[in-house]
Amino acid sequence: METIAMRSENVFSKRVHAGKRTYFFDVKATKSAKDFYIVITESRRIDDAKYEKYKLFLYKEDFRKFNDALMETVNHIERELLHTVSEEVGV
């Protein structure tokens, strides 16, 4: 059973459906409710009743570094790699 304390730690949640996977971006409050962190969860269905879940905990001191690295990586793929794949496939 979920307690009031457990409910209050969930501040925000965003779900992203991506094919067979679902990603959850959850903002949670620390026990003191004075600080926040992000939990990124990947959930993947294995069969009708089972799921695999992987979690990544991201703390406020790393938000900017994580975001910068993610954006740099996505931009690199879009600029440098996707056109190469399209050319190889003949698209």
Please state the CA-atom Rg, rounded to the nearest Å: 18 Å
Strand proportion, as a percent range, falls in 35-45%
Structural class: alpha+beta
The overall pLDDT, averaged over residues, is: 87
**CATH architecture identity:** Roll
Tell me the CATH topology.
Nuclear Transport Factor 2, Chain: A
pLDDT < 50 stretches: 1-8
Strand adjacency order, main sheet = 1-2-3-4
Largest sheet: 4 strands, antiparallel
What oligomeric assembly is this protein in?
single chain
Q: Could you characterize the architecture of this molecule?
A:
- The chain has 91 residues and is of the alpha+beta class.
- It has a single domain, classed as Nuclear Transport Factor 2, Chain: A.
- 36% of the residues lie in helices and 41% in strands.
- The chain is built from two helices and four strands; from the N terminus they run αββββα.
- Strands 1-2-3-4 form a four-stranded antiparallel beta sheet.
- The N terminus is likely disordered.
List keywords for this structure.
4-stranded antiparallel sheet; flat; alpha+beta; 91 residues; disordered N terminus; Nuclear Transport Factor 2, Chain: A
